[in-house]
């Protein structure tokens, strides 16, 4: 029994924080898990910048409302879901993901949650589980699934390497260089072909 585990940002939708950095005019917020492997450190740093600029959940959600899936992403996901079970495993937050899931046809997503004050200030974040992508893939394997995984960033490598087949998708040159044995694709059609062969 196969199950495909996909990253969200950079694979199916644009990077939320990059879009928000552009909308808010705060270039430091362009830093993502492609640049910083330590997610806790990255998020704590981001929350500090939001506080400094007096920005909260509403401002980020206003930006997310204008984000569409990457061209071809919904068709890719629809075809994949017609072939096998698919779970999106993301380090994003339910408060960010909901409008994007609507645009993708409501696929299953496992992600985290933000702690938000009544004022709308994001005061913290709650990770669903430590090292969530790898832990989730191992849990799926423990109940009889064979996993196939794809992502673009440092935080995806655990689930990609632990799966029976794993692929980089639109990753960085540095990650591709560091993991030359991982097949790397730029187009959904090539990723689909690779997943079909692994199924």
Structure characterization notes:
The structure is a single chain. With 199 residues, this protein is an alpha/beta fold. The chain has a domain at 2-13 and 70-112 and 126-198: Rossmann fold, CATH 3.40.50. 44% of the residues lie in helices and 21% in strands. The chain has helices spanning 16-24, 39-53, 57-64, 73-83, 94-103, 132-142, 157-162, 173-178, 188-198, and strands spanning 2-6, 85-93, 108-116, 122-126, 146-151, 165-169, 184-185. The protein has a seven-stranded mixed sheet with strand order 4-3-2-1-5-6-7, with helices on both faces. Helix 7 (157-162) links the parallel strand 5 and strand 6 (165-169). The chain starts with a strand and ends with a helix.
Task: Kindly list the characteristics that best describe this protein.
Rossmann fold; 199 residues; 9 helices
The CATH homologous superfamily of the domain at 2-13 and 70-112 and 126-198 corresponds to HAD superfamily/HAD-like
Assess the beta-strand content as a share of residues: 15-25%
Strand order across the biggest sheet? Answer: 4-3-2-1-5-6-7
Number of helical regions: 9
Please report the first level of CATH classification, the CATH class of the domain at 2-13 and 70-112 and 126-198. Answer: Alpha Beta
Question: What's the story with the biggest beta sheet?
Answer: 7 strands, mixed
Give the mean pLDDT.
Answer: 96
């Amino acid at each position: 029994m196969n199950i495909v585990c996909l990253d969200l940002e950079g694979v199916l939708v644009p990077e939320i924080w990059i879009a928000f950095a552009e909308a808010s005019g705060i270039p430091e917020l362009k830093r993502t898990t492609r640049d910083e492997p330590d997610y806790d450190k990255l998020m704590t740093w981001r929350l500090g910048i939001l506080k400094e600029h007096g920005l909260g959940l509403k401002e980020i959600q206003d930006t997310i409302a204008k984000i569409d899936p990457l061209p071809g992403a919904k068709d890719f996901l629809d075809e994949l879901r017609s072939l096998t079970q698919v779970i999106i495993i993301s380090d994003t937050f339910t408060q960010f993901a909901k409008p994007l899931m609507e645009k993708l046809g409501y696929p299953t997503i496992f992600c985290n949650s933000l702690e938000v004050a009544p004022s709308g200030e994001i005061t913290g974040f709650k990770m669903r589980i430590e090292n969530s992508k790898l832990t989730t893939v191992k849990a799926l394997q423990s109940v009889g699934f064979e996993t196939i995984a794809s992502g673009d960033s440092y935080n995806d490598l655990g689930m990609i390497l632990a799966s029976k087949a794993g692929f980089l998708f639109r990753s960085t040159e540095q990650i591709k260089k560091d993991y030359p044995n991982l097949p790397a694709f730029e187009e959904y059609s090539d990723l689909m072909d690779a997943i079909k062969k692994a199924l």
